[in-house]
Amino acid sequence: MPTLNLFTNIPVDAVTTSDILKDATKAVAKIIGKPESYVMILLNSGVPIAFAGTEEPAAYGELISIGGLGAGVNGKLSQTLSEILQLKLSIDSSRFYIKFYDSPRPFFGFNGSTF
């Protein structure tokens, strides 16, 4: 159920996309403590983004989870995801925002129902 939605203004090829999806899935699962089979990652590339008045490489993310989030976990997620974006897309961590949502079970749907 953890879902990470990433947006970047960098066009990303299929191989790099696959690498980011795999790396982010492993990181989110490990840090939050949920099985990889529950994790969904979306990567939206080539999205127009202005950050600090420039269109230099940047990214924005939203991570939604039912539990597992908190100050320490969120900090570790922010650091780890920043590292992935720096390594794979050369996006400096100072040009990446991420928002965390801890969702109540009835507000997250799956398999025709809610959790």
Automatic annotation (TrEMBL):
Primary location: secreted
Keyword Isomerase: yes
An MF annotation (GO) of this entry: dopachrome isomerase activity
Keywords, sorted A to Z: Cytokine, Isomerase, Secreted
Catalytic activity as recorded in UniProt: L-dopachrome = 5,6-dihydroxyindole-2-carboxylate; 3-phenylpyruvate = enol-phenylpyruvate
UniProt subcellular location: Secreted
Pfam families xref list: MIF
Protein EC: 5.3.2.1, 5.3.3.12
Gene Ontology CC terms: extracellular space
Keyword Secreted: yes
Superkingdom in the source lineage: Eukaryota
Family listed: Belongs to the MIF family.
PANTHER family recorded: D-DOPACHROME DECARBOXYLASE, MACROPHAGE MIGRATION INHIBITORY FACTOR
Name this polypeptide is given: L-dopachrome isomerase
Organism: Microthlaspi erraticum
